[in-house]
């Protein structure tokens, strides 16, 4: 039945929200993946089709793994993870609709580049011919892993096949990088972590221990950490697996010759990293980074914060761009000319006028208050927040621009918020509270190296936000509020990532109902109390701007982005928006 229904051009899904099947992307032991198009919107996704009636599926705990994968995917939404749109069961088939990553997996990508080098009779010099390409992938994988771990989920099967390529970009050098000897990569890859079939959600053991130990021996032999075979492990096993992956990205081969999964024999085999020719040609910082990940003692192994503060990642040059117009900085050009909103006790309508003369409008007529905001030619919309409501367009719609402006369309029933934005070239390094209310931020300039002052963010929440902690890169920390509630985080920032905005949902006690911080890379870190109102928010990824909205009834469900240079002829992308998690 699956073969009949899932052919190119066929349709699946409920009548009110159907999808059209496209080309087949991959086939694996669990199922087959196709490209598909959502007919109501024209957006492209991937759909994994699993035949739950197959004997192999029944005999290998297939349903248990599948339901765990779906459950964990529902918990996560992040740019570096393949995100779930929906799942459905039809006639013995499970259909998982998720983000499309049509560029293949990293295993085949590396194999292809190794093959090209062999045929050309030249040494393999790493992914893209430069360590910069591996650094770009590394930052994304660490970002995704850190996000998963912050939600108490261990992947448990990190390998090159489970990292998918979304798209590739040219690499533009800067005048500073031209003075260095570091090779320029042929391309940079945007990637996502996939396949949560073996992932496991575990409870936090204590504020000092991120995870309780797990006891099931799972994973792929070439990537499995020594402690997994010994039967007691935690999230640090994912970092070992990533160390094996990174060695392969740099060297085109595995770091060990694994002949047995007996714990003692395996430990002996992984006690020494293979001294291949590409390994010896790698920089000292790269070798140190991999060695830190492939440390047998998990307590000495590089953690997320250790990775992001390591010299190999801190040392970088150049800039990722969407177009290949040449060297140097990409000029900023906004696409939205004016924002207009009407509101009464809720938001009745919002209209975006564009510099090319077109416009888009959402909502209907009504509202006592009408207001417009004119944007400058080089001003970009970077973030949008909606306070949910079951009717109209929510209680509030808030836009944040690259010029630190806050454009707020608020109904009279909107909750009180405090929002602070760092000017361009500055970063948030501290917060200022007057009792329970956020009244200011401490700013620092972003240095020429681009390094952020804050290495990680954590806190504690109960009915409200009890505490927020900013861990600085020098090892010190800044704590606000008092201990109480449940631990959240810590969430690590990348080396060249820094905080640019903070928003508080105000209440008369504690540190408010919620605190939300946004980074320079578009990542959002949330501390939400149980009494926080439901909000939807989206921050534009690095090198992009917001250029469109999508509503389903009263809810903001999608945001369209385009390149920061304003070129809407390429790089347009629609991103799903989901509500804040209930915690």
UniProtKB/TrEMBL annotation:
GO terms for molecular function: ATP binding; protein serine/threonine kinase activity. The keyword ATP-binding applies. Keywords: ATP-binding, Kinase, Nucleotide-binding, Serine/threonine-protein kinase, Transferase. Residues 19-313 form the Protein kinase domain. It holds the Pfam family Pkinase. SMART domains: S_TKc (SM00220). Transmembrane segments: none annotated. InterPro entries: CDPK_Ser/Thr_kinases, Jacalin-like_lectin_dom, Jacalin-like_lectin_dom_sf, Kinase-like_dom_sf, Prot_kinase_dom, Ser/Thr_kinase_AS. This is Protein kinase domain-containing protein.
